[in-house]
Amino acid sequence: MATTRDLRPSETPFDRFLTAPAGDDPGGRAVSVLSVLARLGVDPWEEAASLSRMAPERARQHLADLMQRQGDLVGVPGTLAARTRHLIGLLPGAPSEATARTRRDADPRPGLATIVAVVIAVLALARWFMGA
Is residue 79 part of a domain? Predict the structure, then answer.
């Protein structure tokens, strides 16, 4: 059986996304995103590139539409939103959920160490200009 490496021997930035499981077939075997796209007659690498250029919400909706068109995925409808969120997060340039949470929770105010360093620098410059 040909592997994805056989189909496209050089690594691409979309490999994590394309090889991730999109769902299961009726026999309980995992079906990759690459397989879903190929079964729909879509070039998987072109579609991955297109999705990576879209806004995240639009990309999630487009991927969900594609996955729903693939009729033999089992157990996807109830988890489709979570699954597409995870899959879109695997595209290059997409922030991971942990990174997004860190950015959202980051305090934009400078820390105490930064304030102390600036005050010391200002005092040192003032002393130097006064010739002391």
Answer: yes
Residue 115 lies in a domain: no
117: pLDDT strictly greater than 90: no
pTM of the model: 0.62
CA 31, distance to chain mean position in Å, is: 19
Whether residue 38 is contained in a domain is answered as: yes
Whole-number pLDDT of residue 105 = 52
Pick left, alpha or beta for residue 28 (phi over 0 → left; psi -120 to 50 → alpha; otherwise beta): left
Q: Which domain holds residue 27?
A: 4-94
Classify residue 13: in a domain, yes or no.
yes
Query: How many folded domains does the chain comprise?
Result: 1
DSSP element (H, E) containing 44: helix 44-53
Contacts 24+ apart (CB under 8 A), 43-51: 44/14, 44/18, 45/8, 45/12, 45/14, 45/18, 48/12, 48/14, 48/17, 48/18, 48/91, 49/14, 51/17, 51/88, 51/91
Tell me the pLDDT band of 10, cut-offs 50, 70 and 90. Answer: low
Q: Are 47 and 37 in contact (CB under 8 A)?
A: yes
